[in-house]
Amino acid sequence: MAFKDLFRKKTVQDILKQVEKNELEGHESLGKHLTTRDLTAFGIAAIVGAGIFSTIGKASFDGGPAVIFLFLFTAIACSFAAFAYAEFASMVPVSGSAYTYSYVAFGELIAWIIGWALIMEYSVGNITVAISWSDYFTGLLSSGGIHLPQWVQMDYLTASNGFRDATALMEGGKSFENLSAGLQDAYTAWTTSPVIGSFHVVADLPALLIIVFITALIYRGMKESRNASNLMVVVKLCIVLLVIAVGIFYVDTDNWSPFAPNGVSGVLKGVSAVFFAYIGFDAISTTAEECKNPQRDLPRGMMWAIIICTLLYIAITLVLTGMVSYKSLDVGDPLAFVFDELHLKWMSGIVAVSAVVAMASVLLVFQLGQPRIWMSMSRDGLLPKKFSNVHPKFKTPSFATVVVGFVVAIPALFMNLTMVTDLCSIGTLFAFVLVCAGVLALQNRTDIPRGKFKTPYINSKYIFPLLIVIALVVSFKYNEKATMGFITNETKINDSEAIITSLNKEETQKVYDYLLSIEGKISVSEKLDAEDLLSKYQEDETKYASVVAGLPISDTVKYESGFDLFKHKIPMWIFLFVVVGLAFWAYKENLSLIPLLGLVCCLYMMAELSVWNWIYFTIWLLIGLIIYFTYSRKNSKLNLERE
């Protein structure tokens, strides 16, 4: 097989002819039910979920009221990507999202890679949302007096890791009562779970049940899914507006001062969490084939969803940080928490119920998108033909929908929420990057039929290099210490919890004795443990560095340096080199500014994720390449047509 055949492309004309043929024959065609209003509702259903009901609390804690600027930045970045999605959706109005667009722009191998990445994005995203839904649902049951055993409402990895960390902290002198609620729950789940041999039976059963229910609904039909989604969107929008309307009367503007207590670094600390609050609008593009007028409705639906959700996020953030101090918002259920603090129990209960509805609607949209990706890949011969089967009555990709249910349900029983959140983010951002790059690659081609929507053209030839210069000046002038630390790979001091949980019992005792010796007077009633004693110094950076330097333990535990530190910076170095390359490309080809900024913003957010996520993502892609070269390459319809 010639190397060039790996990049054989589908033409827009052939794709549209095949769709028209399918519709005329009634073969493998999907029902057309969706309008702009439905698409906007799907977008809101996907976006308004974890962002408002969970991650907004941690982001506000890190950045203070100024976190509204992070929501604004993320919305702008997503809008840049949405322009690119909308242009492709208008040009190629079929199911498949970024996968189909890449097949046209880059060729088969890149299309396979992005399709494989999308499989991970939607699968892992669904797992994430199912776990979050389970947390809210079990919390709601607990508030109603129904307490499930911890080992049936927590995943295996969280319980295992939590048990290990809790044990290490208790060996350092911390009592069980002084552990965080999360560690207490994990320790309880692990120690009370049934044991088969040496295996602890810990599994998140509510997550399994909601996936089964949503999968059955999606299998039943698009019209039913649309109606359920629209109903859930109405419910949660009413709740969000009620929270704003009630909360605004309890806002104390003194809580908005300082507006940015931790500076720019505090605001940017929540990039990954806030971005996760926006992903989902791209799932709209997977329904292109089921739209009544995709070339008009898809762009409108995406843009309206992002605009509405951004306004809601900003309003909610200002209300929350005005009702209570940002310092108290580091909780998993910030909306319910603030009303509890103000003794408005009835509002707290309403918020808890709406959170369960919100999470279910997010899961519905994510679960809706993935089978349509698989169906598109199957139609092209890259996956077995069975995945493109359309139910004769329900007009849904039936087999793919059932398989997706299993693919999501089984890992949701055992996987850790933090791990799957970051994996979902990196898969989504990778898709955004390729879609933006696809628009740039096609912008000067005259053989591509254009749809009704086209991204406004602004020449980036001089603007983009100028933006890079401005970014460098700002970095060195206003954030010189962090910038130079990044370049020189300056040794980093680990935080107190990371140090203490890395020690064995004997080392922990040595650290505790040392801290007592320098502390001087300690009240017996305080009952401080090693982690408490060490964390007291973290507010003063200089003092903390001095105390850590004197700890009687190995420097490898106290500090991160050399390659161990540099490896975490590899994603950012990749980003910087790519940006330089893009500057040359922009100057040479007069690239369009909006998709270029979308590419750069999304790549930057990828660089903010840990190197381990890049490694896991690379392993996933390598598995995909093995499948492509052993099955998909030979069975591709483009390959069979040329034989």
Automatic annotation (TrEMBL):
UniProt key word Electron transport: no
Residues passing through the membrane, by range: 39-61, 67-86, 199-219, 231-251, 263-281, 302-326, 346-369, 394-414, 420-442, 462-478, 570-586, 591-607, 613-631
Topological relation to the membrane, as annotated: Multi-pass membrane protein
Listed InterPro entries: AA/rel_permease1, CAT_C
Keyword Iron-sulfur belongs to the record: no
Domain Cationic amino acid transporter C-terminal: 593-636
GO CC annotation terms, alphabetical: membrane
Cellular localisation: Membrane
Molecular function GO labels: amino acid transmembrane transporter activity
Keywords attached to this entry: Membrane, Transmembrane, Transmembrane helix, Transport
UniProt protein name: Amino acid permease
Lineage start: Bacteria, Pseudomonadati, Bacteroidota, Flavobacteriia, Flavobacteriales
